[in-house]
Design brief:
Order of helices and strands: HHHEHEHEEEEEEHH
Distance between the termini: 18 Å
Helix content: 40-55%
Number of strands: 8
Oligomer: single chain
Strand content: 25-35%
Length: 210
């Protein structure tokens, strides 16, 4: 469920705040919001934990918990938003979330004929550049993924609340409604989830045995 080193989950959780999700590789040059080593290390560690569950189909009976942060460069956001015919007129962005998901639910999604993977409400805290200032944006998401025979076939981000300045809040809700009505990000999410489960985990962590 990650794209390029663990970024898909946070990108999906934050899509409404950054109006475009995670579309490109890391860009660490000329960033006002600098990408630190700790940020990439935490994403990679969470990816490894999820891959272990995906490949071994074993759990400890507890929740998987990851403290994640992702920073996007303005150019990456412009590219991602543009691919969805959305205008990105702001600067760099950064989001944080404490990801929590039941390990057993992950195994169920991959092994049962049909399963709805439901994450409880997650609080996502973002900051976005607006000129020379940085604006906070907070939102609540409760993502859902529907699986059939171990493959993700439906996805919904479940945006429940948005805290932001009026103009930004209106723009975010517009994108939220577009996603709910037309599923503008669903194909990207499903493609990355299924690629991660079917190929990337085994390629990156061949030592994990079923």
């Amino acid at each position: 469920m990650f794209k390029r080193g663990g970024k898909w989950v946070l990108g999906a959780l934050c899509f409404a705040a950054v109006l475009g999700g995670d579309q490109t590789v890391w860009n660490t040059t000329l960033l006002a919001l600098e990408v630190g080593k700790a940020e990439k290390a935490k994403l990679k560690a969470c990816e490894k934990d999820i891959c272990e569950i995906v490949l071994t189909r074993e759990t400890t009976g507890s929740e998987l918990s990851c403290q994640l942060q992702k920073t996007w460069a303005k150019k990456a956001l412009e590219k991602g938003a543009g691919s969805k015919s959305i205008d990105w007129s702001l600067g760099d962005a950064r989001c944080r979330v404490d990801l929590e998901v039941s390990q057993q639910s992950l195994v169920n999604a991959l092994t049962l004929p049909k399963y709805k993977l439901r994450l409880h409400k997650h609080e996502v805290k973002c900051i976005v550049e607006r000129g020379e200032n940085v604006t906070p944006i907070n939102l609540a998401l409760a993502p859902k993924l529907k699986f059939k025979r171990g493959k993700a076939v439906e996805a919904a981000l479940g945006v429940a609340d948005v805290e932001a300045p009026a103009l930004l809040k209106g723009a975010i809700w517009t994108v939220v409604k577009m996603e709910a009505t037309f599923g503008i990000f669903q194909d990207d999410i499903l493609r990355e989830v299924n690629k991660f489960v079917a190929k990337k985990c085994a390629k990156r962590y061949p030592n994990f045995k079923p």
